[in-house]
Design a protein that fits this description.
There is one protein chain. By secondary structure, the chain is α/β, with parallel strands linked by helices. The chain is built from nine helices and 20 strands. Strand 8 and strand 9 form a beta hairpin. Helix 2 packs across helix 3. The longest helix is centred in the first third of the chain and has 37 residues.
């Protein structure tokens, strides 16, 4: 048989091709096997985005000196500090995406008003947005003016307030210098037994939310923890005269030890009135504790930390870029006569604007002698987009009904505005997106109450002989509807 050279060549090439395919197949299986073993040994991490995060804290405790009183805020007048139990601090969390930077700052005071926040922002011009929130601490210095020696005495130490501005600027710059690439996880946990509601109807904000940051270069190393919980820091009560950060100080200390990283604690929806529970908190021996002492504050702080650990354990990866910002100035009619009087006598020192009937018009100058219904203040509402996460920045103490929509139906008899439209709740605005709410963000305008729940005139709801607590520390019944409409505008703006 005569063999053809070209035929032999085709046979050899075919054999070589089959051998090559066989070898490649074995090699691919080995690669896949190796990859599977690696994945089994090391859980897959979410893709590293461009986000960088830095967290830093600074001591803001006021000095107590002879002939220089520190007036404690949050309860009544004339509560002078007699000592320091634990330090107060400001903590800044900086988020950076490329050249874009935003900062969230939390401060252990009763509240900082928008004019003060603007002074802080003026000294941080390289930031795209700075949000300054207060924990609403009732055991720290008066930073608004309402809690001085008497109703006619402004309780703010202006030198302290100026130093506070400088320290917030410094700690934010320091946090930015520490920013490193991070992975982020977001989690939540709920426990209704950890919060009390002293106002009817009972509607609780009992969900704690947390963001955890770990290093991209070493995911086992925690960069920081950001916690949002909705409860007045008033575990110590009105009789305490020692400066303290209240239960959040314990919560932070426990979490910092557990996760070996800095912790930033923010207050959420604390209106309505969210406070430490009257019962359910026990000591190490299982005996019930009563509010109004440091032992209670310690045990309650530990319980909140435990809830935060539950939220952190349940946290899942979340993408926090791109960073988006939607903010607006909002006019609020100042109808509270006590606030108007305090402003007139200089206890409250805050510029006013003219109320035109349109909350979007917050820049109309105030006349020299404003009419009763023309006085307003300018505040700010914002919504931040951090990738998948939406963050509502609310300038006061918002009631949980406005967040979760758990309105009392039918309406309670004898309320002042029984036919008022129900405000669309924040939860419905946010849709299916993960979200947070930061209360007392950039301002403290007091309680933000559903208009249909407003009850200032006799006869009173729930068969009471006097009005429930709340309206006395609100700018007026229009605040709730205005803030919720402004929030809807900001959320819609982010979507667009």
């Amino acid at each position: 048989m005569k063999l053809n050279f070209h035929h032999l060549k085709r046979i050899r090439l075919a054999q070589i091709g089959q051998t090559t395919i066989f070898v490649l197949a074995i090699s691919m299986n080995l690669v896949l096997l190796s990859a599977n073993r690696t994945l089994a040994a090391e859980p897959m991490q979410p893709p590293a985005g461009p986000l960088q995060v830095g967290i830093e804290s600074i001591d803001i405790t006021p000095s107590i000196r002879t002939n220089h009183p520190v007036w404690l805020a949050g309860y009544g007048w004339g509560r002078q500090a007699t000592g320091i139990h634990d330090p107060l601090r400001a903590t800044s969390v900086v988020f950076q995406e490329g050249s874009k930077k935003i900062a969230w700052v939390t401060v252990d005071v009763v509240g900082l008003q928008l004019p003060t926040v603007k002074r802080i922002r003026q000294q941080l011009p390289d930031f795209d947005y700075v949000m300054v929130s207060s924990t609403h601490n009732h055991e720290g210095p008066d930073t608004i003016g309402l809690w001085g020696k008497s109703p006619f005495h402004r309780g703010v130490d202006e030198a302290y307030l100026e130093s506070l501005v400088d320290k917030i600027v410094a700690v934010t710059q320091a946090a930015a210098s520490k920013a490193v690439p991070v992975y982020a996880t977001f989690g939540a946990a709920t426990d209704p037994t950890l919060v009390g509601d002293s106002r009817k109807p009972e509607v609780k904000a009992a969900t704690l939310r947390v963001l955890k940051f770990t290093r991209v270069t070493d995911p086992s190393q925690n960069v920081g923890l950001l916690v949002v919980w909705s409860c007045h820091p008033e575990a110590l009560g009105s009789k305490n005269t020692l400066i303290t950060a209240d239960f959040p100080a314990i919560t932070i200390a426990v979490l910092e030890k557990a996760y070996n990283c800095p912790v930033a604690y923010f207050s959420g929806e604390v209106g309505g009135l969210m406070a430490p529970p009257a019962d359910g908190i026990r000591n190490e021996q299982g005996q019930p504790l009563q509010r109004g002492n440091f032992h209670y504050a310690k045990q309650y702080g530990k319980a909140v930390a435990k809830l935060a650990m539950r939220a952190t354990k349940a946290a899942e990866p979340i993408q926090l870029t791109p960073l988006r910002i939607s903010q607006q100035s909002v006019a609020i009619p100042l109808q509270n006569q006590l606030y108007r009087t305090a402003r007139l006598v200089g206890v409250l020192q805050r510029p006013g604007v003219s109320w035109t009937g349109d909350f979007n018009d917050a820049n109309q100058p105030l006349g020299r002698l404003p009419l009763k219904n023309s006085l307003a203040i300018a505040t700010e509402v914002a919504c931040l987009g951090l990738g998948e996460l939406k963050v509502a920045c609310v300038p006061g103490e918002i009631y949980p009904e406005l967040v979760y929509g758990k309105y009392q139906i039918p309406v309670e008899p004898n309320v002042d505005y029984p036919d008022a439209a129900l405000e669309r709740p924040l939860k419905a605005m946010m849709g299916s997106s993960p979200w947070m709410l930061i209360g007392l963000a950039n301002d403290e305008i007091g309680y933000i109450i559903p208009k249909r729940q407003w009850d200032q005139l006799a006869p009173y709801a729930y068969g009471r002989q006097k009005s429930q607590y709340g309206e006395i520390n609100s700018c007026g019944p229009e605040v709730g509807p205005i803030i919720m409409k402004a929030l809807q505008q900001r959320i819609d703006d982010l979507k667009n």
